[in-house]
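Minutes, project check-in

Agenda point 3 was the complex the collaborators sent over. CS summarized: two entities, 465 residues total, and the question is how they sit relative to each other. Sequences were read into the notes so everyone works from the same version.
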Amino acid sequence: MKKSIEKNKWGMVVVGCSSGGLGALKEVLFPLPSSFPLPIIIVQHLHPEGESYLASYLDGHCQLSVKEAEDKEKIDPGFVYTAPPNYHVLIEKERTLSLSVDAPVVYSRPSIDVLFESVPPFMAKHTIAILLTGANNDGTKGMLYIHRHGGLTIVQNPENAESSLMPQSAINAVQVDHLLDLEEMAPLLIQLSRD
Amino acid sequence: MDNEAIEINLLLEAIYQKYGYDFKEYADASMRRKILHRLELFKLSNISEMTHRVLHEQEFFEILLQDFYTSVTEMFRDPSYYQALRKAVIPILKTYSHPRIWVAGCASGEEAYSLAILLKEEGLYDRSQIYATDLDKNAIKKARDGLYSAELLRKYTSNYQKAGGVESFSDYYVAQNQNAVMDPSLKQKILFSTHNLVSDDSFNEMHLISCRNVLIYFKKALQERVLGLFHRSLCRQGILCLGAKESLHFTSHDDAFETLMNHEKIYRKK
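CS then shared the predicted structure for the full assembly.
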């Protein structure tokens, strides 16, 4: 058996959000320094015919480089990847990203559940999953999956979320590790990235 | 490797050896999602149990095969792509006496019909031949029938208009019960047939190949092979159209094509 030596506990951050997500993402990502070592992959629900503005918008507001996910692209530290409109994003075991046009899940493509549940089991235990504001329950199954595989789950406090349904649904289903307001997220992520 | 990954490899190997369908070079993440979804629906305890049933029950295999095939498309998906075809590609096709067009991975036919409509409106349809292929014989049957749920028509009509459609979309179908039946004249120049991009070879010299949102389901090595097949199948200066999020960049075929429209992923063989 190959023995893997884990230098760091956490290897990747996955984030899901829907309505109100743009403002929330800005608050979470903006304080992260360009040296933040964990790659971040984001599903923000978008109108299927919308232009791919999300990545360029966030890139203008973040110290990290933000780009839209490309098919079979290597996942690199220092980058934030966003799902393109009308495509699911999935994570391959080679640490690359895949796109798919499979049917929408919870009426959503991209879907948060599809991204979170695509994290291979051996990576899931090194994955931090964050669920933010949103008005449907996409992401709940995904959070449950990450939790069951030993990953870390962080949910935005629904009381202060622009739309409480998505975080509330996850809290009802999963024993989440951290229930936080937006401004508390970046400091925790920075601290976790040193573990 | 974790057990699940091993079990998936064994399942795909069993399918290959028993039925000859090769999914081993399909991108793992999407295959894994489909397999786990079926596992949950049938309340099976693990993937090895699924492999056992695949080997011993052909009906079970057929169900799984349909899971693997399912991809969702629509008429005039990505309207800006069709606008680009009108603007940059149709004038090139018009220089050929009998343009041959291959829609590779046509699924249930939506894109082939969209192209047929486009060619009709550009006065090119009658001298064109569209080959629409997919490896799923059920999808090909559906494509041949040209029967689509009436629920989708509003979306299709809106796509058509955004794509620069100059007629009324309702001229191209007849409403029948809950369905829209595509106008039979649109089928005259479409040859629907099964073809497996993994194992079948080139079958004619094409002026245009459209293969949209198919390559994303393949691993890199298979993507390379299929692009090689397209390169072989195109005439000199033939046109290759990929999906909006697919690209020739970072493949070994990048140098063999020039970019006709970068944003719409339309390339031209050198």
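Noted in discussion: The interface with chain B takes residues 49, 70-72, 84, 87, 90-93, 98-104, 114, 117-118, 120-122 of chain A (CB under 8 Å).
Follow-up: revisit at the next meeting once the mutant set is ready.
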